[in-house]
Design brief:
This protein is mainly alpha-helical and 225 residues long. It contains eight helices and two strands, in the order H-H-H-H-H-E-E-H-H-H. It has a two-stranded antiparallel ribbon. A hairpin with a 2-residue loop joins strand 1 and strand 2.
Length: 225
């Protein structure tokens, strides 16, 4: 546990990166399967799907993808506003996805997908903006292409230069790639049983993490006094 939290900045701890990325994969798989094959966080995929929807004159598809992209942007802006005005801004950044998850999990499967996906996109944008570093390294908790690339580059550099720093960097990125993958697999496995209520699993994990982060941050502040 000490190694997972061994950082000068609690929000950059390996533990939080792994948990947040697991939840990112979990929620992306949830919206893809339950909400019309729309990705809540991976906006690259949504832009591709939007192009296909435009070509096929799929109005619902256009609305779904545009809503996800727009609300993701608004979520990032909201997180930056929180950072500018709130002391424990990262704690507040996780509250929207908790409330959104509780709400969506209580909705029937007929609930409009453009509302479900858009709301989750908004919440994940806040999460991704608040927790964006692992041991000082930039990463994404809600999509994993860049993380996979960075892992391969770091381990290739380690192969040629034998620098321990490069090995640790590659390991950190590899762990969050695995976390994202396991989150998506877990979500896909649970959904046949819980359907829309599957999202509550992520809500519980994020809630526990948010509480734990708050007390860790308070402890860190106390040590500095």
């Amino acid at each position: 546990m000490n190694k997972l939290l061994n950082t000068h900045h609690v929000e950059e701890a390996r533990l939080f990166a792994i948990i947040m990325t697991f939840c990112g994969g979990f929620l992306d798989a949830f919206t893809y399967i339950q909400c019309g094959h729309t990705l809540a966080a991976a906006q690259t995929g949504n832009i591709v799907f939007l192009a296909a929807a435009l070509v096929n004159h799929n109005v619902i598809g256009i609305v779904d993808r545009c809503g996800a992209i727009l609300l993701y942007i608004i979520g990032i802006i909201t997180a930056l506003v929180f950072e500018a005005h709130l002391k424990y801004w990262r704690v507040f950044c996780l509250l929207p996805i908790l409330m959104i998850g509780l709400f969506i999990g209580a909705m029937p499967e007929s609930y409009p997908t453009y509302l479900s996906v858009g709301l989750v996109s908004f919440g994940l944008a806040l999460l991704n903006t608040a927790f964006s570093k692992i041991e000082g390294l930039g990463y994404s908790s809600v999509f994993t292409t860049g993380n996979l690339k960075n892992s391969v580059i770091s381990w290739t550099d380690f192969y040629y230069h034998r620098e321990r720093k490069e090995f640790i960097t590659g390991l950190n990125y590899f762990l969050i790639v695995v976390a994202f993958t396991l989150g998506a697999i877990a979500s896909a496995a649970i959904q046949p049983l819980l359907r829309m209520k599957t999202i509550w699993v992520a809500v519980v994990i994020i809630l526990i993490t948010d509480i734990f982060y708050y007390f860790q941050k308070k402890h860190e502040k106390g040590k500095q006094l």
